[in-house]
């Protein structure tokens, strides 16, 4: 599950990063500040997603919080610059946040189940 999350986050970050860079470039060349800001928000979202994808291996909880921050940045950029595509990009980090939380929940449940099982086995061996 961690491998899938990391792969999807890097793939998403690459796509959003390239698209946002192109949007910001068009804004700079044509002197349109709204496009520059929108592209910058998308680049920040891409950077946060790539960082969270690497953090999956270290701490799923910190990774989930970083994905949540990326979704918030994308939502704010979409609302501020009135860009529907940037608003839709917030769905990617939101879904990856849910995947991370589910992974964390499964890891903790597995640890508690295995601890209960080992305690049960040690109690039977004493008798």
Quickly list its features.
mainly alpha, single chain, 127 residues, elongated
Walk me through the structure:
The two termini are 39 Å apart. The chain has one domain (2-126). α1 packs antiparallel against α2 and α2 runs antiparallel to α3 (60-80). The protein contains five helices and no strands. The longest helix is centred in the last third of the chain and has 36 residues, at 91-126. The chain is mostly helical.
User: What count of helical segments does DSSP give?
Assistant: 5
Low-confidence stretches: none
Number of strand elements: 0
- Domain count: the total is 1
SS content category: mainly alpha
- The best one-word shape is elongated
Biggest sheet character: none
Radius of gyration: 20 Å
- Average pLDDT works out at 89
The proportion of residues in beta strands is under 5%
What percent of the residues sit in helical stretches (DSSP H or I)? over 70%
What is the H/E order?
A: HHHHH
Kindly report how far apart the N and C termini lie: 39 Å
List the helices and strands and how they pair.
Elements: H1 2-29, H2 33-55, H3 60-80, H4 84-89, H5 91-126
Helix pairs in contact: 1-2, 1-5, 2-3, 3-5
Task: Quickly describe the structure.
The chain is an all-alpha fold and 127 residues long.
